[in-house]
């Protein structure tokens, strides 16, 4: 039998997590001690929201799930903004907040995050993919498994578990959970995408911060070079394409470059959108007179597709990296077929 806190720390170690971010508090002390015993570095943040941002950055760069810890009450509420940012950026992180002991539920308590006080479970629901209270040690496996599945399935994002102090100290039967392997989603419309790209006379690639989440840097560069497509980024998409690349026009929208805006003024017949919802900040300066004639919009979900720009839009669902890689595979297969049919290469 092992304590719940020790089992959580064991899993962090198993998943290759080297750093956990947060601020200590009485309700989470058992977990922090267990983390220390596993020689996982606890990064003391200046503020819980900073811990959430740090966990998000850790997840983005390491491709491991980031973990942020805050104590009960305000320690938890301070993490809400960071959770919202992780959700908007489709970054999987695990937020663990403290909670008064279950045996004291209903009593007057400082930093009460039960349903009798500031209910952290409900507060986190709009900004996470899953939020729950682990009320007994034997429920940890089920809740942790479900949280991880939610974090990595479909549109990735943050999840939240609040664990009472006495539950962290409960002894339960050890178990083992692996991090889910994300399933790559391919769109059935990739041949339509290729046809539109082949016909385009004045196209542009429009890249947002979602490209960072998918890490499709190389695939997008190859797509741009194959069709010789100029590339612009949103303000949040800076860094998704090398600014010194000959096809780079810099950023468009708020704080965009003169070169990018000039290119749009020439008239765009096809805008390929990847990793952005096309918010007002991304489209600042794009007037109706210079709207593209056609948009191809890559995204996991269709919520905002076709709403910012009222032009014919082809929605390409699924992961940017997986879809871009498949487009390249199809194009290369076609090129090889044509090479084999070339009389000069056949002789």
TrEMBL record:
**Family matches, as InterPro entries:** DHS-like_NAD/FAD-binding_dom, THDP-binding, Thiamin_PyroP_enz_cen_dom, Thiamin_PyroP_enz_TPP-bd_dom, TPP_enz
- The protein in question is named Thiamine pyrophosphate-requiring enzymes
Every Thiamine pyrophosphate enzyme N-terminal TPP-binding domain range: 3-111
**Similarity comment: family membership:** Belongs to the TPP enzyme family.
Extract the Pfam families matched here: TPP_enzyme_M, TPP_enzyme_N
Q: What CDD domains does the database record attribute to this sequence? A: TPP_PYR_POX_like
Example of a GO biological process term:
L-valine biosynthetic process
Q: Which GO terms label this protein's molecular function in UniProt?
A: acetolactate synthase activity; flavin adenine dinucleotide binding; magnesium ion binding; thiamine pyrophosphate binding
Thiamine pyrophosphate enzyme central domain sequence ranges: 191-325
What GO CC annotations are associated with the protein?
Answer: acetolactate synthase complex
């Amino acid at each position: 039998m092992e304590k719940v806190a020790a089992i959580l720390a064991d899993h962090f170690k198993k998943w290759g997590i080297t750093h956990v971010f947060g601020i200590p508090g009485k309700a989470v002390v058992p977990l922090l001690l267990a983390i220390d015993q596993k020689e996982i570095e606890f990064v003391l943040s200046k503020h819980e929201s900073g811990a959430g941002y740090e966990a998000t950055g850790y997840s983005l760069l390491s491709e491991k799930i980031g973990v942020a810890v805050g104590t009960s009450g305000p320690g938890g509420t301070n993490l809400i903004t960071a959770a919202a940012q992780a959700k908007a950026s489709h970054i999987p992180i695990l937020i663990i907040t403290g909670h008064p002991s279950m045996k004291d539920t209903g009593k007057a308590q400082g930093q009460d995050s039960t349903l009798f006080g500031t209910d952290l479970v409900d507060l986190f629901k709009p900004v996470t993919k899953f939020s729950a209270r682990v009320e007994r040690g034997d429920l940890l496996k089920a809740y942790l498994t479900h949280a991880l599945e939610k974090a990595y399935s479909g549109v990735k994002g943050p999840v939240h578990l609040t664990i009472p102090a006495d539950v962290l100290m409960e002894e339960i039967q050890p178990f083992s959970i692996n991090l889910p392997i994300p399933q790559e989603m391919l769109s059935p419309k990739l041949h339509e995408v290729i046809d539109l790209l082949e016909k385009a006379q004045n196209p542009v690639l429009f890249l947002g911060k979602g490209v960072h989440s998918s890490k499709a840097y190389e695939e997008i560069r190859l797509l741009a070079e194959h069709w010789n497509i100029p590339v612009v980024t949103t303000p949040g998409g800076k860094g998704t394409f090398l600014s010194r690349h000959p096809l780079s026009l810099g950023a468009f929208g708020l704080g965009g470059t003169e070169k990018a805006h000039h290119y749009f003024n020439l008239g765009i017949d096809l805008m390929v959108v990847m990793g952005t919802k096309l918010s007002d900040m991304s489209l600042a300066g794009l007037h109706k007179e210079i709207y593209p004639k056609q948009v191809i919009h890559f995204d996991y979900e269709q919520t905002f597709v076709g709403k910012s720009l009222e032009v014919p839009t082809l929605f390409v669902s699924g992961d940017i990296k997986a879809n871009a890689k498949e487009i390249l595979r199809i194009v290369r297969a076609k090129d090889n077929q044509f090479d084999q049919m070339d009389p000069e290469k056949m002789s």
